[in-house]
Amino acid sequence: MDAATLNPLSLVRRRFRQWWQARLPLTDTYTLTQRNVYILPTRPGWMLALTLLVLLVGSINYQLNLGYLLTFLLAGSALVGMHVCHATLRGLTLNLQTPAQQFAGTAATLSVVLSNARKSVRHSIGLAVLDATHEDHWTWTDVPAEGSCTVQVAFRPEKRGLHRVPPLTAETRFPLGTFRVWTVWRPAAQVLVYPAPELHPPPLPPGEPRAGGAAAARAQSTGEFEGVRAYRRGDPLKLVVWKKAAKSDELVSRDTMQAQRYELWLDFAGAGHQDREGRISRLAAWVLQADKLDQDYGLRLPGLQIKPGSGEAHKRRCLEALALC
Amino acid sequence: MLNLRLRLAALPRDARDTLFLLVVIGWVLLPHIGNLPWWCTLLAAGVLLWRGTLAVQGKPLPGKWWLFGLLAATLGATWLTHRTLLGRDAGVTLIVVLLALKTLELRARRDAFVVFFLSFFTMLTNFFFSQSLPVAAAMLVALLGLLTALVNAHMPVGRPSLAEAARTAGWMALLGAPVMALLFVLFPRFAPLWGIPSDAMTGRSGLSSQMQIGNVAQLALDDSIAFRVKWQGNPPPQDQLYFRGPVFADFDGREWRPLAPRLAARFPPIRIEEPMLQVAGTPIRYELTMEPNNRPWLLTLDAAVQPPQAPGLVAAMSGDLQWVASRPVVDLLRYTAESYPQFRYGPRRRAAVLTEYRQLPAGFNPRTIELAGEIQREHPGADSAVLVDAVMDRLRTGGYRYTLEPGQYGQDTADEFWFDKKEGFCEHIASSFVVLVRALGIPARIVTGYQGGQRNNVDNYWIVRQSDAHAWAEVWFDGRGWTRVDPTSAVAPGRTGTFERLLPPRGVFANAMDTVSPNLVASMRAAWEAMNNGWNQWILNYTQSRQLNLLRNLGFESPSWEDLSYLLLAIIVVAALAGAAWTWWDRLQHDPWLRLLGRARKRLRAAGLETGHNVAPRQIANLVTARFGEDARRLADWLLRLEAQRYARQPGASLQALRREFQQLPWPT
Q1: Rounded CA separation B420/B407 (Å)
Q2: Which residues form a coiled coil (chain B) (predicted)?
Q3: What is the pLDDT of residue B42?
Q4: Domains with residue ranges and CATH for chain A
Q5: What angle do CA B493, B495, B499 make, to 5 degrees?
Q6: Which residue on chain B is closest to A33 by alpha carbon?
Q7: How confident is residue A235, by pLDDT bands cut at 50, 70 and 90?
Q8: pTM for the full model?
């Protein structure tokens, strides 16, 4: 806990923000109306107000009718600017596209479609993830007249699991920068965050003898699971590891003996003696590695077992299981 | 030209934006060139050019020390020029330099703000010097330019064209104009909050409160407008157009001054049985619009009995028939007056008070006094009128010349005029005349003011310029009182009769224009000045009194500025209510079909059936029948018809009917 979190004012402010955000509806399509678009003057806006005051006093003191005209025309333009600023967001429709699964710790992108039914361009709309780090995280865009555009914002999920998409915010200061018009939007969509794969995982565990199969000694001797061998004439095409073949000119076949005798099991219990998250992250790395090798693999987690298999769907299933366990 | 455009298009966006802003700043500063010390103009221009070069070449901006150095140099130079760092002129110099120097700090687009605010002050300072129509037009362009720069700075995406930003800015200004008009008309005009700044009026010429030889000749070169007159009925003939200003009777040999107040106070009060001022004939009525001159004098045609009329104007007549307002004329002042060309003024009989008007300073103009003795000897026992006629004869026949450039006069101005130079401007003539007449023992004084005027054919206003400034004499005759005698008319009859002005030498351009079409320049000028007059009458002359007049027309009994505030507030409230009503109406317009569906969803949610926002009525109907069974058949049917109304409309299927039915549906609870 640092000083900022202990500060009663910021505590109250944070509480208020939480309470206020909790009131917002959860929806993937958000149409901005009078009710959910907010407007406040910016610092330059206050400066403009001060400027107007000084201009007015100057005009009064020097009895400059032209000074009055200048002051009032500027004030009128600023007033119109306020309206234009509010109208830039008002009536805009935001639509979140179903977010893709992500690995924890990597930047995830959310695609938001901004649709504009109006007959004029909406300028300079910024979109960002709310409460992100304080760096410049805005993505700016113009939405064409009677059209739409897609904006991507990034966020970095820290933990694995099923997360709600973080609240998003859109804002604009167009045209004069004297007002900030913004909205806060809580999308209903959820994003599944896979565990972050271990950076330098140990080699894949040795295969286990298939139930009812024969000896397990060979694989253990090398310590590495080698399920491939050079192509021999007569190997059925099914056994050719095409992925590897594509990389080198040599054809490689799955070692049918191996495949028949051993099964690769990625086991929670056998993932080293670290903490739970460490093991899960190692398992995730192994899943990716095995998939890359185009290997059949199964996953054993406490209370869950996924039978060996391969392919994209299998990989996703395993990663989901890892994310949610 | 094309080459330049290509080069501009090739510049990076930041450089282009900076160049645009520099051009706008240059435009804002342009009207100031005449008002600034020469070094300030050079410095500002140099800095702007330097910044522009850096932008084009993409070089880094100079360091902080450059700025500090330039700023310090500016402060020093300002001090040397104005001997102060405060006040109007020094302030204007400083703000111009600050604005120019700020551009050297213009790193990001957000700095446009500081430049923006500084530019507005600079624009206001332009009005200290001139509120004319061209300056107003230039500042309107400047305002649009600044708004364009600001809008452009808030379009961070890509490289928007400046024309696009300009269009947005133009629209904003156009829509803001009604607000401006409303505030301009109704915003209460206060008196200056802490007194009119003493420097508000410097640089505006006009008659002065004393007459040193040479004053009026200087004015004759000034072509600016002193006032405008609109006659009700026919204008009087040119030779009667004497607009009376300050009257001078106290001469110290160098300078003419009004009689000191203590002497004027001894003036006997006006007696009822023999009024000081008697008038006859029909009065001339006119409306006079005076340019501000920071003097209290209200110019009237001789002689006005009633004080000039303007709302809020308090005027009193001085002992010498001059109308004086209770405060200086600091903004455009319009008043109506009534003058009688036939009048008598002053004591009928020789009175003690008149001795003041016969005094001459000792030791000055000995030859003139000698001349007076000669004239008296030539006309023994003659009365004042004959003597004055003799003096006028001498002026007419003595080879005297009327000129703008009589050269420097020395110690004894009257002597030099009568005997040596024999030429002069109206002030020399009048001064020498009065000295001679006084030497003859006749009371006389100098009146300054304006003589003549020119009709503008476009709007029929008469324009009287500073160059129409004139000085003449008044002589007291026994039994007639003060009588106007214009010695200049004896020297140069054209000056007052057909009205010829002495023209300063003309420029090459004017000569060239004359050879093309002699009348073109004159008529263009007339149209231009008529336009200016309209500007003055409608915009610059919009004062508190006219504001209150407006309220009176609107039905306020005795309007005050509080009433103005109430009216302004009421209009703002009405506008706000109208805005709220529009918002409400807009929400009503917000797809009635969707709103009806929303209401149905809400009722179902209350019954425990949650449906998402993007679930179609048909799906809702399915959900309803699945959940509530046969009871909800009518409801499901209604939902289906709702869908059909939107997507497969049958003739006669109205939303209104569906809405009515909505009330009677058997909603599940």
Answers
A1: 12
A2: none
A3: 92
A4: 22-194 (2.60.40.10), 195-208+236-324 (no CATH)
A5: 115
A6: B587
A7: low
A8: 0.66
